[in-house]
Amino acid sequence: MAVPIETIDLEVEENDAVIEHPERLAESQKELGNQHFKARQYPKALICYSEAISLCPGTATNYGNRSACYLMMNKFHEALEDARKSVMLDPKYVKGFLRIAKCYTALGDVSAAENAISQAKEVSVDNSITQQEAQLKQLKNTYEEIDKAVLKKDFRKALYYYDRALEIATACTKLKCMKAECLVQLGRYQDALDVTTESLQSDQNNPDGIYVRGLCLYYQDNVDRAFTYFQHVLKIAPDHRKAMDAYKRAKQLKLKKEEGNEAFKSGNLTQAYTLYSEALAIDPLNKVTNAKLHFNRATVASKLGRLNEAVSECTSALALDENYLKALLRRAKCYMDLAQYEDAVNDYEKAYQMDKSIDNKRLLMDAKLELRKSLRKDYYKILGVEKTASTDDIKKAYRKRALVHHPDRHANASEGEKKEQEKKFKEVGEAYGILSDPKKRVRYDNGQDLEDNDMGSRIDPNTVFQAFFADLGNQGGASSFHFGGGGGGGAGAFPGVFSFQFQ
Predict the structure, then answer these.
(1) CA distance readout (Å), 316 to 175, 280, 292, 353
(2) I want to staple 408 with a disulfide (CB 3.0 to 4.6 A). Which of 140, 166, 296, 491 is the partner?
(3) Of 405, 425, 408, 399, residue with least CA distance to 489
(4) Whole-number average pLDDT of the chain
(5) 146-184 burial by CB neighbour count: b if 16+ within 10 A, else e?
(6) Are 171 and 76 in contact (CB under 8 A)?
(7) What sign does the dihedral 70-72-76-80 (CA atoms) show?
(8) pLDDT, tens digit, for every residue of 194-237?
(9) What span, in angstroms and rounded, lies between the C-alpha atoms of 272 and 254?
(10) DSSP assignment, residue 13?
(11) What distances in angstroms separate CA 46 from CA 42, 62, 376, 447, 491, one per listed residue?
């Protein structure tokens, strides 16, 4: 940099040659650098301080000034080197020790910073020493809180303290990588990658940064790519314990999961379930892979007819990955098989919102239909027959139920019991009236007329009863059947004695 001539002291020799004294020129450069520094023109100040050092390399303050300039430019390693040189040249240069402490604090090295402060206190008592001690104490306390939170696996709390620590140790690459690892544990993979970008830009072989990137892949179930990252870390840092442990876990988890898949494909469901369970125990923090393992167990459980267990496994999978569509659909299917239609509808609605496919829409409509059907009277259940029952099966079931619940048979019962039997007698008549009529049965099976639910209310159970047993009597034969009592309930329609022929 060209220096104004008036700022430099000159000495004239006998030959009139202009000889510049290095000390004076260095002082002028230093002063000019100070002006740039005060104006926050740090790159210009740096040039002046460097020139002063080249002119007078034995002056401590020149290194001290350049160290201060580097500090303002966040070039802490360069600042540290200059600060060390300054105290080597002048062991009583207190500002040099304080700048060493600042550099180590920014780099996150508490022990080295404490040592520099101790040396500064031996030289002088300064307010800036006290301030720096307080900041260093705060950093130490924050480190302790981080250790406590990580030990408890409270990663949200740990992340809070990582941010507090990085407000002080602004250039600590290791701390940034630890924060990135914490973000991985919280499932914030992109944020973790962003944090490691800076450290890898300055050092592409930074083992901690590479390890975190491998961890991101591993926790996203991209195990094969994760292997390459872990292997690279161990190549450049063979003693990197975290990378070694993660590599072993990843290999073990992949192997166990593949063994479970092979057992499943070969039809050995019990063994597959056991292997998936063993895989789940390997790494509780791997949410994505563990969600898939829970889903695999659900698939096995459903094939074994353990539907409630399958539901529970799907719920566990969704707790780890709320957007796991396959688990949502599997649970909905289990709910359908368990006749828990309302839960099935809820799951199919969520699934349809995630994937508006024709298949998902059809599944949702089917579930809603079954839900509506489930809210009406189950005539098959009332008669005690299967949905596949034949006409003869329905007739036999009606004859049995009608005779059991006919009001005349309960004439001497309490009023409460009479009402209950009348209700059941009516329901049995409704059920037979619908299921014995082919057209009505088809409509019932298809879920029609469900909104007003009046299909059965128009059927008179006494008329059904009379018609049924009259028809039965017309088939020939005579067997006297007498209900106890004579009145009460619906007995008015059928007083006294009925003669029926039973087959």
Answers:
(1) 33, 12, 10, 21
(2) 491
(3) 408
(4) 86
(5) beebbeeeebebbbbbbebbbebbebbbebbbbbbbbbb
(6) yes
(7) positive
(8) 999 888 887 889 999 999 999 999 999 999 999 999 999 999 99
(9) 14
(10) -
(11) 6, 11, 86, 85, 112
Nearest to 110 by CA among 79, 135, 146, 78: 135
Torsion (CA) 333, 335, 340, 342 in degrees, nearest 10: -70
d(CA 311, CA 301): 9
The three-state DSSP-derived secondary structure of 56-98 is CCCCHHHHHHHHHHHHHCCCHHHHHHHHHHHHHHCCCCHHHHH
Q: What local confidence, expressed as pLDDT, does residue 493 receive?
A: 41
Given pLDDT bands bounded at 50, 70 and 90, which one contains residue 127? confident
Residue 12's H or E segment, with its range, is strand 11-12
Name the strand (E) or helix (H) holding 482: strand 480-482
- What is the rounded CA–CA span in Å between residue 19 and residue 294? 85
pLDDT of residue 289: 95
Measure the CA–CA gap between 46 and 101, rounded to whole angstroms. 21
| Neighbour tally for 396: CB within 10 Å | 15
Neighbours of 433 (CB within 10 A): 22
Q: Which two tokens stand for residue 464?
A: 């059904």
pLDDT per residue as tens digits for the range 228-255: 999 999 999 999 999 999 999 999 999 9
The highest-confidence range among 116-125, 373-382, 402-411, by mean pLDDT, is 116-125
Spatial neighbors of 174 by CB under 8 A, at least 6 apart, are 108, 208
